[in-house]
Specification:
By secondary structure, this protein is an alpha/beta fold. It comes from Aquilutibacter rugosus.
Length: about 475
């Protein structure tokens, strides 16, 4: 009989939501265990979830490497910097990415040790009575009982039935982060965050990238003007994005490194085909709840496989909580961070809250795309009166000095109260600037508040300052 181990908190999953919950609970004096099934490229346990292993961090490493290479051939000349026959060593680039991943996954292990969190490496299943049975990688089983259980199982890539992942020719984000060389032709199904970011990486390195997006418009979740500007810049870079292009069939032909993929799709012109060397399928992610919940645990899932929770991330089962990608809301690491911390604090009897309306969104392409709050399209649909102020980076001294003038900042405020309802950005470094909108909205600030805050000159943030002033038609550096 397996001996049952007792903990105040048992966390299932050591991704962004899970490790934040575990560390914060431990800081609050609770006895914590955390279970994770993931292995690194070396076959050893690797904490940190999709974000650290095969998502946020490694993709940003490749985006930065590819951006440096792209700038050598497309931007440095404007600065008077010349290079002859610049080359990219893809294995070295991938090795750098792997080193960064190992550094950060190892960092989580060190934090667990410092906070006296007990890790278990394997797959956990929740049973009745807050009992979690863990099948460890060595084949052994352990049984944990938690006064509280926090489910932070994360998400998996959605696989198309006609385009199964093989890890080589047809890949998800994991495969696209590990190509051994730059594919001559790369096809991408899905023009979302993953498709655009990884498509950008390989486009910058010389691949002919074609993105097929089934939706009739590009980046429908973003502000329409932001999406239009981004699409124009991507086209200049050679990234081909076809909207209203619904893939229906994939065929692989050839052998070894001579393989190619033929994608059949339908667009406004009818039946079409696209031939590529590699295919990235990036049509979204789904909650990783398969095999996670025993029938007797009483935790409910919806028709999308997400665990049902209330506004405090409680499942309705005494002592069982769920956070991150496996529950409602945006599948973003930073949303998981905050939910993990909030739940740990609620377990400890402290206040805990996450405002899903002020979660920032970022796409780390070039230019970057970022936003928080409602778009004009959403406000129109909801019948909310609003006013808008925008300002181009082309009129910002810092952006022009950096030779990165593309894009703009847009502030949306309520027409009657002036309260900021959204901040929408496309341009260089906007992943950092979006937090001005987050802070303003969290403190119920107005466009006038933003306009009256002194912004450093010269800085990229001046675009937000002038956009906020433009809401009241008093921008200094543009005609109102």
């Amino acid at each position: 009989m397996v001996e049952q181990q007792q903990f105040d908190v048992v966390v299932i999953g050591a991704g962004p939501a899970g490790y934040h919950a575990a560390i914060r609970a431990a800081q609050l004096g609770l006895k914590v265990a955390c279970i994770d099934a993931a292995l690194g490229k070396d076959g050893q346990p690797a904490l940190g979830g999709t974000c650290l292993r095969v998502g946020c961090i490694p993709s940003k490493a490749l985006l930065d490497s590819s951006r440096q290479f792209w700038n050598m051939g497309h931007l440095f000349g404007e600065h008077g910097i010349a290079f002859n026959d610049a080359k990219i060593d893809v294995p070295t680039m991938i090795g750098r990415k792997d080193k960064i991943v190992k550094q950060f996954t190892g960092g989580i292990a060190m934090l667990f040790k410092a906070n006296k969190i007990t890790p278990f490496y394997g797959f956990g299943t929740l049973h009745a009575g807050n009992v979690v049975k863990v099948k460890q990688h060595d084949g052994s089983e352990v049984e944990l009982k938690g006064t509280n259980v926090v489910i932070a199982a994360g998400s998996d890539s959605i696989e198309l039935p006609f385009a199964k992942f093989d890890g080589d020719t047809i890949v998800d984000n994991v495969g696209a982060l590990n190509f051994e060389s730059t594919p001559e032709r790369l096809g991408v199904i899905g023009a979302g965050v993953i498709g655009l970011e990884l498509g950008s990486v390989w486009n910058r390195l010389g691949s002919k990238v074609t993105v097929l997006e089934a939706a009739p418009s590009f980046l429908a979740a973003a502000d329409a003007e932001v999406a239009k500007t981004a699409a124009r810049e991507f086209k200049k870079q050679g990234l081909e994005i076809l909207v209203g292009a619904k893939a229906s069939k994939v065929e692989i032909s050839g052998k070894g490194n001579k393989k190619e993929v033929t994608i059949s799709y339908t667009d406004a012109k009818g039946e079409q085909t696209l031939v590529v060397d590699k295919l990235l399928v990036a049509v979204g992610r789904r909650a990783a709840t398969k095999g996670l919940l025993a029938e007797d645990c009483a935790v409910k899932v919806n028709d999308r496989g997400q665990i049902e929770v209330d506004e405090h991330n409680h499942t309705g089962v005494d002592g069982v909580w769920a956070v991150g990608d496996c529950v409602r809301g945006p599948m973003l690491a930073h949303k998981g961070f905050e939910e993990g911390i909030a739940v740990a604090e609620l377990i400890a009897g402290l206040p805990g809250h996450v405002n899903l309306d002020t979660i920032p969104w970022v796409i780390y392409t070039e230019p970057e795309i970022a936003w928080v709050g409602k778009t004009e399209e959403q406000l129109k649909a909801e019948g909310i009166p609003y006013k808008v102020g925008s300002f181009p980076f082309a009129a910002v001294g810092r952006a022009v000095a950096m030779a990165e003038p593309a894009g703009f900042a847009k502030v949306i405020a309520h027409a009657e109260t002036d309260r900021v309802l959204g901040l929408h950005l496309v341009g260089a470094m906007v992943s950092e600037l979006v937090h001005e909108g987050v802070l303003t909205m969290e403190f119920s600030g107005s466009a006038d508040d933003l306009a009256r805050i002194c912004h450093a000159h010269p800085s990229m943030s001046e675009a937000i300052h002038d956009a906020a002033m433009a809401v009241a038609k008093r921008a200094i550096h543009k005609a109102n």
